[in-house]
Amino acid sequence: MQNKRILVTGGAGFIGSNFAHYWHRQSDLLVVLDALTYAGHRRTLADLEGAEGFKFVEGNICDVQLVTQLLTAYEIDTVIHFAAESHVDRSILGPAAFVQTNVVGTFTLLEAFRHRWEAQGKPEHFRFLHVSTDEVFGSLGPEDPAFSETTPYAPNSPYSASKAGSDHLVRAYFHTFNLPTLITNCSNNYGPYQFPEKLIPLMCVKILSGQPLPVYGDGQNVRDWLHVTDHCEAIATVLQKATPGETYNIGGNNQVKNIDIVQQLCDLMDELTDKLPVSPARELITFVTDRPGHDRRYAMDSAKLQRELGWQPQYDFATGLAQTAQWYLDNEAWWRPLLERSHQ
Fold first, then answer.
1. Strands 255-257 and 222-227
2. pLDDT, tens digit, for every residue of 102-148?
3. What pLDDT, in 10s, does the model give residues 281-322?
4. E strands within 60-164?
5. Of these residues, 34, 77, 135, 295, which one is catalytic?
6. Does the active-site annotation cover 216?
7. Residue 75 catalytic?
8. Residue 29 near residue 5, CB atoms below 8 Å
9. What are the residues facing 5 on neighbouring strands?
10. Which residue among 33, 70, 96, 112 is least crowded, i.e. fewest CB within 10 A of its CB?
């Protein structure tokens, strides 16, 4: 495979920053573009700053002039598109930002990349890899088979609808313009550097702060959990091996109820430190009114990715969860300023 000159959008966020750390030595150049909103943190990339072949640019993917300038100036041949508004609760409170970033932003990137690809004579090694979510498929019943690449889209929140819209744009640019695009749809990610609004980091920081642990509804909602390192390896595999136009589901083969995760985290934190404000931490669990349109169950069938490209998840959930809890325990200096900035 020809060496890549990569633009990573959203590379100061959770999955994007983990991918930047994972990939930067494998390409000639890795440029991170991030708007540094509440969930983006430049210090997440501190150990890459100044490294050979690494560049950071603060900016918005909806800025067509900036995107075009970056693609040209850095001779980008590959875009890995992580940048997205991604929190369902925030999409319920303010849907407009999700449509702007996830739909208009993706369109802006596709158009700029298409113009560069065409201007260069449509090189075969160019790639546009769009990172999406299992939520575009809607909700599963307890006995339903896992989502596959052929499952019909049925998004149930403004967030998932905006991601579905971006998926459709990427697919259309392949079929209309032959643009060499790829789409991955992943299950819930967990691991280091995740902003503490998502379930696992939220519960970690609230346990450490002695605050109530809010569990939606009856806590029986089921998610498939994928360690972010396994996700990065899957994306790299798709980038290196997949045929343009293909879509791959990425899952961790770990279907767990929300309440079970919260209880496991309570027990882990009790074991990891004797300095909790409230112990046992399970005393903090509080059931709250369910989220509107809350999907009951997600599950991802990664058989196509495993069969065609040879990828397999490496993390078992118990090990990954324990490592993640330890990371949040050890890295308050990373997450505390983020929380304070978000509350402002």
1. antiparallel
2. 999 999 999 999 999 999 999 999 999 999 999 999 999 989 999 99
3. 999 999 999 888 788 899 999 999 999 999 999 999 999 999
4. 78-81, 127-133
5. 135
6. no
7. no
8. yes
9. 29
10. 96
